[in-house]
Amino acid sequence: MLRRLIKLAVILAIFAAPVATLVVTYRAFAHFARIEARERRMWGGSNAIKHAFAASETYTRLNLIFSDETSRRLALDLGEWNERGEAYIAHEPDIQSESYKDMRNNIYGVAGAFWLKDGYGITDSQTRLRLAGYLAARRELYFYAGDRRVPQLPETVDAEAAIAAIEKDEAALQASSFAYLDQHRDQIEKDLGLVSREAGPHLQPSSFPR
């Protein structure tokens, strides 16, 4: 009987480990986002930073194995599954506009991670966090579901409808993210202490869609 109980405990631990890891990681993202928001003297921006930073970290880790485009798609898909999960398990699940806001910040986080890697060869977490903080401080990230840039959506909990809305807008949102990063390159370099690497014909074009 004891052996059976031990075996059952091991099996449960194996299946629970990914969930526990996810919970711990999610809390870590939230913790660092709050620190970044405080350092930039922001009120209400930590959730936006958290989503952008979490997506940027997910993309970067996946990019160690997969191509730019596959990593981008998987990172955004994981964000969508997070919204699906919250609709069922969260104490106060997000309405559609809240989910849209979070997924939009995910798109910005992934674009920012690629932008840093492609333009500066930077793959460290601290710089990605600071970029998310910079974008939040300039209100490029979305803070609230009532942000005027969030489309009018029914005030209901419907993750699938929110995902359909963000996927329809994804290409345009990604393009606008890159446009802002490129247009404000000088200011971002100064804020983050970046040194651009020269782009030349010897560099292979990236597979990341822009």
Features:
globular, single chain, mainly alpha, 210 residues, 7 helices
Describe this structure in words.
The protein is mainly α and 210 residues long. It has one domain. 70% of the residues lie in helices and 0% in strands. It is built from 7 helices and no strands. Helix 2 packs across helix 3 and helix 2 packs across helix 4. The radius of gyration is 19 Å and the shape is globular. The termini are far apart. About 12% of the residues have low confidence.
Task: Please specify the SSE layout and strand pairing.
Elements: H1 2-39, H2 46-62, H3 68-89, H4 96-120, H5 125-137, H6 159-183, H7 185-192
Helix pairs in contact: 1-2, 1-5, 2-3, 2-4, 2-5, 3-4, 4-5, 4-6
Quick description:
The chain has helices at 2-39, 46-62, 68-89, 96-120, 125-137, 159-183, 185-192.
Strand segment tally: 0
**Ranges with pLDDT <50 over ≥5 residues?**
5-22, 199-206
- Biggest sheet record: none
Shape: globular
CA radius of gyration is: 19 Å
Residue share in helix: over 70%
Q: Mean pLDDT across all residues, rounded?
A: 84
How would you spell out the order of helices and strands? HHHHHHH
Indicate how many domains the architecture comprises: 1
Strand content: under 5%
N-to-C CA distance: 59 Å
- Helix count, DSSP H or I runs of 4 or more residues: 7
Structural class: mainly alpha
